[in-house]
Amino acid sequence: MAGTIHIDLFSTLDGVMQAPGARDEDPENGFAYGGWQAPIDDDAVGEDVMAGIERMDALLLGRRTYDIFAAYWPVYEGPGSQIARKFNAIPKYVASRGTPALDWEGSQLLGPDLASAVAELRERHDEVHVVGSVDFARTLVAEGLFDVLHLWVYPIVLGTGKRLFPENGPARGLRLLEPPVAGPQGALLLRYGPGGEVATADMG
């Protein structure tokens, strides 16, 4: 049985996904709200994230997220060090148009043909997770190269920043895989799978 590709993302209510975890995570285009997720501490989010980490057997990352993780997790020894142990132990695949030095142990560059590379990962692993990597995730969703989109939506509006669904992106249907889950601080978990093209009709 082929493995599955999971995309894990945190989003504001207006769809911004840029730099949720730290102030200096991704200041591209003058983004001033880095670390917007951190003040909204929600136990339901943490439990779901940890469950996903326990299941995954590979990471698939965009170049920017890979560089952040590679500088952080190999030397991390604080609370939640089980995350570091898992990330350091499993294979890491990196999507990049260049030929970056991938010094984090267990890392390798994804092949240039994205569809073929994803198919190979499905054969090689049971559950591959794309964490963050908004630009790369946008490509995977647009091309239907994923199985589950885990989307935590937070009760905050930023107005500007990178989004998974840009204004000029392709129309795309999604399919709800299970009922939504609400956390005690107002975060909402939505799990979607590919759903095909968008249809239109008149009401009534």
Query: Gyration radius, to the nearest Å?
Result: 17 Å
Mean pLDDT: 93
Helix-and-strand structural type: alpha/beta
Task: Give the tally of β-strands.
Answer: 9
CATH class: Alpha Beta
Residue stretches low in confidence (pLDDT < 50, at least 5 long) are none
Model description:
This protein is an alpha/beta fold and 204 residues long. The chain has one domain: Dihydrofolate Reductase, subunit A. It is 25% helix and 24% strand. Strands 1, 2, 3, 4, 5, 6, 7, 8 and 9 form a 9-stranded mixed beta sheet that branches. It is globular, with a radius of gyration of 17 Å. The mean pLDDT is 93. This is Deaminase.
Structural features:
about 200 residues, alpha/beta, Dihydrofolate Reductase, subunit A, nine-stranded mixed sheet, 5 helices, 9 strands, about 25% strand, RibDG_C, 5-amino-6-(5-phosphoribosylamino)uracil reductase activity, Deaminase, DHFR-like_dom_sf
